[in-house]
């Protein structure tokens, strides 16, 4: 017995400690989000939900509604495409200014003062641009340019400009700098060094990231419809308000189709990329460029955006006046404490939503992963379909649907985040498991361990760091999503923003927006530190 | 456990679709508690034979019988229960790099643990003392709570052997268990394995390239070459001619005609009783 007592697991106290901290943090999360899932199952809400769900069948397939949906789908894609095109106009110069990869002054010792200031300025601008969710930009822009697609296009352009610029700069910096440095040292200009030294190395990664963001922009543009930017989202909003379940069901199916289409596009691009035949590459990339250009031109043509009106002196003046109304932000103690409460609620919503999604994703990824023999084929296909459906519907649409069952408040937000994110994480987890070496799992199976044991003792230890890092990435994403969920009534900062904007209390709205930016920056920082600690 | 290969063979390609030389239909019997060494050149089918015996791959010819029962004829749940009676240690133990040694060793007992006990042991190792005892016999007692990726190749192989000691199995199938060990540890590890197998009455089958150790420690040797058994006899009855033929380069693989005898002589030079 004494020998048994002598063996102490050195990691045990730390594990207990972290578990205690986890529980201690979970409790306030549950309280702050008023998380009480049993409320979903009380008689009244079951009745309302049941009636709402029953009205989904059959989906509305009348020709005039289908024509309307087709038209709005086209508009959604057009908003996303034009938004991304404008975002590129913003992102490319910002990325070039902020990347050190083609800096002449950085070649010899520290960067000179002026370029350094310019660089940091560009980086700060991108941080601000991408920390404000696109829905918030849209809420502000709708008041400047009026209801319509222009606000949506500009909102996507601003947020995605910041995101794309940052990632482009990172991609360029992660390339082998040798070639560009040599060109610069031989006296070529910065743009020449970029075109001949960096782009050949980075072009595939840049393209595939842009396509991925285009897919995200389609989802965003659906969401923007909820604040009046047109497209599927606006139609969804009005159908939801009329509780027209058949119409909602049709549009949900269209979402799923759209996301599947975008998936196919990026899968095709990746397949081209992997094809070794370089002589095939050129016509295909030309074709791709032509298709993208055609899509962009038809998008711009189909949206009647009044660009001229935007740059008229009167418009500029009213914009200036509008911006001036936000200053100075309301910093009275009472309001700041109210905002920080909203910020806590948003933080809790994002964290709990992500946690629930991680658990659900872990559960769903097992039948979805390609690790077993043919007898699981049907279950695998069904699980993949479920994951795609969960992922295809944006968080905000889930929230709008859930408000019927869960009522107003942050719990609907938590569930909405959890549903969408479990679709995303389930798929990412399944891919991680498929890509991990399978020998440890086969080894345990051959020894007679059950599937659950194989998961605990072979599969999870192999993929745990990657899964955790995916969860943290999604948390960064979800804090942005959580700030906007309030706009449809799910509590937190978003609700405060739409409330203050509705009452034209612009100075208070400014405080809320600043709180949003700070919250996003805080979560990005924590998640970044955490991931860095894990990989070392 | 009694193991019988009744015309068992594996001829098809592996999972990646590449054709490979497996094992021609083979008839072999191993009585309970017997200690046998498989010898033969690389690619002779030793690993395939062990994998077939361990029911890790399914034979496409003939049958493998555990105590006169064909595990592949059983429903998968019962086959899984039968697997608990055997332990198969691959040459390179496939252990998750971030797993701790204690967890990797205790995983040998998973089939007996049931889900809840294995979950508990996953969170906080149960029976860590028996893992430590087993590790201590292979000189790894202090490494109990280290991560697997902090170990050297030889240490990892000894962890895999300690794991064998923990499994309550009656058929031990070890694929080149001594390949990464230094000569002193190789002899000592083999002695420990044979003692323990004897104590539990387990059937012990190992494959090895260490001719000296195999002949000195194992009463029965099975020689494999190009996927078929070329001899199966008591170690004392083997003469050096049979060893030479075993390791002689094959017709197809012979690189240059007149180098072959030299290679065979080189093999012979390593034989202890030449």
Short description:
Chain A has helices spanning 2-6, 12-32, 43-54, 63-98, 113-131, 134-145, 149-174, 178-185, 190-224, 232-241, 245-274, 281-302, 307-310, 313-324, 333-368, 377-392, 395-406, 410-435, 439-446, 451-485, 492-502, 506-535. Chain A has 536 residues and is mainly alpha-helical. The longest helix of chain A is centred in the first third of the chain and has 36 residues, at 63-98.
The geometry of chain B reads as globular
Radius of gyration from the alpha-carbon trace of chain A, in angstroms: 25 Å
Strand order of the largest sheet of chain B: 5-6-7-3-8-9
The helix/strand order of chain B is: EEEHEHEHHHHEHEHEEHH
Poorly predicted spans of chain B: 253-274
**Helix content estimate of chain B:** 25-40%
* Total number of beta strands of chain B: 9
The CATH architecture category of the largest domain in chain A equals: Orthogonal Bundle
Query: What is the residue-mean pLDDT of chain A, rounded to a whole number?
Result: 83
* Arithmetic mean of pLDDT of chain B: 83
- Helix percentage of chain A: over 70%
Q: What class would the helix/strand composition of chain A place it in?
A: mainly alpha
**Which geometry of chain A do the CA atoms define?**
globular
Beta fraction of the residues of chain B?
Answer: 15-25%
What is the end-to-end distance of chain A? Answer: 38 Å
Number of helices of chain A: 22
Which percent band covers the strand fraction of chain A? under 5%
Which blocks of ≥5 consecutive residues of chain A have pLDDT under 50? Answer: none
What's the total count of β strands of chain A? 0
Assign the CATH topology of the largest domain in chain A.
MetI-like fold
Major sheet attributes of chain B:
6 strands, mixed
